[in-house]
């Protein structure tokens, strides 16, 4: 354990000041902790603290993300090898597979439409769940007209997904809103969203992730569109290149550990990013970094590059991220990226998002020069 004086001396040394602290340890601790507490946790111009005001202004410059061209090229070559030799790398999944037996393209579109809305903080395939085959048992779960008529259908569906927890009300609201949207615009069929948007994937994304309020973020919209294309439900060439790798904890972590995306310092804990500035920036830069890989891949001779960056998504987040590049339990020796990831970056972790709002959230923990404050568990 370092003492406060030792920490302060280390900081001074890092910024080029070789000085020893000569006052009593306890007295220096009092001064340091008082100043630290005021800087990080006492109100400033409408912000939680002076630090958070400073962080908003300077986080991008401090983090200073760079995309490493050499690492990007190595990854592009590796991905091309995998996509070009699917038999050789048969154990590596490059796209999600579903059991299509007995269900039509319309059915597939409806199932994916309603499950994509719920695809956050849960695994819809956990414990062997198969929503697509479940359609044959409970088709009403994916029928817009039935959903509008009977709230119990929504509850049963969310219960099946184990999604009735703290976000249950929000999920139910989104599902009913999504059903209403389909009935009013697409004859109740998610398949017809494609026709509504002139078979243009960019129009589909902009529509779903716009102001409909039915639970589709840009990431979820890209994921839904990707699956519709990969599963052969929709076919088009219009604006495919705009579909990004859906940035999440896994795709961020792989980007950081491969050295593809390089911040100037390891990312801060979410306690210091309560306005989500670091998280949002990392999210954007991760998508930018994977798109950079895709652009290099397209330029390789005789390449097997897919028509959209989004088609790399499953390989990155599932076959690399969730299977081998785990947060605290890496399986580097089993990973296809083992020869690419620099040793010095293999422990890097993705950022976490944290909400400033809520009954016991950071917003309620604001305080002033009177001290105290903070949050409760």
From TrEMBL:
Gene Ontology biological process terms in this record: DNA repair
Disordered: annotated span: 357-377
Domain of life: Bacteria
Biased composition (Gly residues): 368-377
Molecular functions (GO terms): catalytic activity
Protein name listed in UniProt: Uncharacterized protein
Annotated organism of origin: Clostridium grantii DSM 8605
Lineage: Bacteria, Bacillati, Bacillota, Clostridia, Eubacteriales
């Amino acid at each position: 354990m370092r003492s406060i004086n030792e920490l302060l001396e280390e900081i001074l040394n890092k910024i080029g000041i070789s000085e020893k602290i000569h006052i009593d340890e306890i007295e220096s601790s009092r001064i340091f902790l008082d100043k630290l507490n005021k800087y990080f946790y006492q109100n400033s111009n409408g912000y939680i603290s002076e630090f958070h005001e400073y962080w908003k202004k300077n986080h991008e410059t401090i983090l200073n993300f760079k995309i490493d061209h050499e690492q990007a090229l190595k990854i592009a070559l590796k991905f091309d090898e995998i996509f070009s030799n699917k038999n050789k790398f048969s154990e590596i999944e490059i796209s999600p597979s579903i059991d299509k037996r007995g269900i039509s393209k319309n059915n597939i579109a409806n199932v994916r439409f309603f499950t994509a809305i719920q695809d956050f903080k849960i695994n819809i395939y956990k414990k062997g769940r198969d929503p697509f085959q479940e359609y044959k048992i409970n088709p009403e779960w994916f029928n817009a007209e039935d959903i509008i008529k009977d709230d119990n259908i929504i509850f049963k569906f969310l219960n099946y997904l184990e999604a009735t927890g703290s976000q249950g009300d929000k999920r139910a609201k989104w599902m009913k809103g999504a059903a209403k949207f389909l009935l009013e615009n697409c004859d109740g069929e998610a398949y017809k969203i494609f026709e509504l948007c002139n078979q243009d994937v960019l129009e589909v994304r902009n529509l779903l992730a716009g102001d409909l309020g039915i639970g589709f973020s840009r990431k979820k919209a890209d994921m839904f569109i990707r699956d519709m294309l990969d599963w052969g439900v929709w076919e088009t060439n219009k604006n495919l290149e705009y579909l990004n790798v859906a940035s999440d904890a896994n795709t961020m972590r792989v980007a950081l550990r491969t050295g593809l995306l390089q911040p100037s310092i390891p990312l801060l804990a979410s306690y210091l990013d309560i306005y989500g500035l670091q998280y949002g920036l990392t999210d954007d830069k991760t998508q930018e970094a994977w798109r950079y890989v895709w652009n290099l891949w397209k330029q390789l001779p005789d390449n097997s590059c897919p028509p959209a960056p989004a088609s790399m998504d499953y390989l990155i987040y599932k076959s690399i991220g969730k299977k081998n590049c785990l947060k605290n339990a890496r399986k580097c020796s089993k990973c296809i990226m083992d020869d690419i990831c620099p040793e010095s970056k293999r422990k890097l972790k993705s950022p976490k998002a944290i909400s400033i709002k809520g009954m016991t959230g950071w917003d309620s923990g604001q305080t002033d020069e009177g001290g105290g404050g903070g949050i409760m568990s």
